[in-house]
Amino acid sequence: MKKLFFLLVIFLCSNSLFAQKTITDTINSQKLGEEREIKISLPPSYSKNKAQKYPLLILLDGDFLFDPFYGTLSYGYYWDDLPEVIIVAISQNKNGEREYDSATDGVTGLPTEKGEKFFEFIGMELIPTIQKNFRTAPFRIVAGLDVTAGFMNCYLYKDDPIFNAYISLSPELPVGMEEQIPERLAAITKNIFYYHCTADGDLKKMRARIQAMDEEIKKINKPNLNYRYEDFKGASHYSLVPHAIPSALYQIFSVYQPISTTEFQEKIAVLPSGYVDYLIAKYDVLEKELGLKLQIRMNDFKAIEAAIIKNKAYNEFDQLAQLASKDYPKTMLADYHMAQMYEKKGDNARAVKSYMKAFQMQEIGDLTKDMMINRADELKATLPKKGQKVEEPVIEETPVEEVPTETPTEEKKQE
After folding, report:
1. Which pLDDT band, with edges at 50, 70 and 90, does 96 fall under?
2. Which residue range(s) make up the domain with 182?
3. Are 45 and 23 in contact (CB under 8 A)?
4. Sorted alphabetically, which SUPFAM superfamilies does this protein's record hold (predicted)?
5. What angle do CA 287, 293, 294 make, to 5 degrees?
6. Count of domains for the chain
7. What is the per-residue pLDDT for 312?
C-alpha cells in the first residue's frame, strides 16, 4: 500500500508522465488476504483543476476492459461529449481469479467464499482508499463482462447500492438473478443507470436469461431508473464489447453533452418561455446526479441565445447575462447579451452603451472587440441627432438563428 501511494505522488508531480500514462501497482487487501494488482488512470485536467471532483469508474476484468473504456472516454473528452472520470481497473486474469472472485452460492445466488471477500474488498477497501487519496465525485460506475458482469449485479441487493450506474456486458447471471434484479430495480429509490446487452452470436444459455431479465425490467415505470438494453446483430460474445462500451457511456452521461441540434429543436425551441431556466436546470442535474460543478459551455450560451431570438423572448437576455457574468466575469459575454436585449427591443441608445462596455472586456469564443465596436457604430448611425424628434422603438422581426455547431473551441483542443 505504501509503495503504491509513494508512486502515485511521483506520478502526480510529473506533468508529462501524468498526461501520457496510467500507473499500475498492487494494493494489499486484508479482506482477500493477498495483494491485488490495480491500474489507476486520472483525468487529463486532474493536476491543474484542483477544485474539480470526478466520477469513479470501477472496472472488473481490468486486464482487458481498461483499454476499450480508456479509449472511448479519451475520445469523448476531446469532443467534450463525455466527462473526465477516474478509472480504477482491477486485475483478475491471473490463476483464474475472475472465477474465484465472482463465486456465488448455487441456491441463493449471493456472493460466497472468495466471492464474498472480493465483494467486501471493493466496497470496504478499494473504494474508500480511492476516495481518501483522490478527488472523487459521489457518482460511481461499475462494469464487467459475463461472469464479472453477473457478479457486480449483487451490489443491487443492498438497500443503498454503492454504485449509481451498472454496465453489464453479456452477463452470466447467478441463479435467480433474472427475476431478482428487476425486483430490486423497482424497489430502489435512488437514481440508477442500468445498461446490459447481448448479441445474436452470444452463448445461448446466457442470452435467453439476459432477454428474460430485459422483459421484466421493461415493465418498470420509474423516473429514477435510466435503463437501456441492446441486442447486437452480427456480433459474438466478445466482439459485442467495443460496440457496447460507447453506447453505455453515452447513455449514462447523456445529460453531460453540450446542447445538440436535436435537443435544441425538440426540447428548447418549442418552449413558450423559460429558456434560461432550462439551461440552469441542465447544469443543476449535472451537479446533483454526477457530482460535477461545471462552467456553462459557450456552445450552450449560444443555443439559449438562439432560442431567445427565435421566440422573441428578449427579456430573458437579462437573466442570461447574469449567468454569463457569474461564469465568465472578465469577458464581454454578459454585456453582449444585454446589448442584444436592448437592440432587439429597439432601444439602440442603451444597446450602443452595452456594446461599448463589452468592447472594454476580454474577447471570448467568436465575440471580438471588432464585432462590438462595429455593431456600436452601426447603431450610432440610427440614433437621432441633437434636437431631432425621437420616435418610439419598434421591435422588428428577427430571422431565426441557426443552432451553434458542437465543434470544440481551439482552447478546448489545445488542452
Report:
1. confident
2. 2-256
3. no
4. alpha/beta-Hydrolases
5. 120
6. 2
7. 96
Residue 386 grid coordinates: 441633437
Please indicate, yes or no, if residue 262 is contained in any of the structural domains.
no
The single-letter code of the amino acid at 264 is F
The answer to whether residue 366 sits within a structural domain is yes
Rounded-to-10 torsion of CA 364, 19, 65, 195 = -20
Q: What is the spatial distance between Cα 129 and Cα 56, in angstroms, rounded to a whole number?
A: 12
| pLDDT on residue 20 | 35
d(CA 125, CA 118): 10
Beta strands in 188-281 (DSSP E): 192-201, 225-236
Q: Are 150 and 177 in contact (CB under 8 A)?
A: yes
Largest CA distance in the chain: 94
User: Are residue 244 and residue 300 in the same domain, yes or no?
Assistant: no
* 120 φ/ψ angles, rounded to the nearest 5 degrees: -75, -35
How far, in Å, CA of 61 to CA of 91, rounded?
6
Q: Determine the average pLDDT of the residues in 168-181.
A: 96
> CA 372, CA 356: separation in Å to the nearest integer?
7
The DSSP annotation for 363-402 comes to -BTTB-HHHHHHHHHHHHTTSPPTTPPPPPP-PPP-PPPP
Q: Which of 24-28, 121-125, 133-137, 353-357 has the lowest mean pLDDT?
A: 24-28
Measured distance CA(99)–CA(60) in Å, rounded: 12
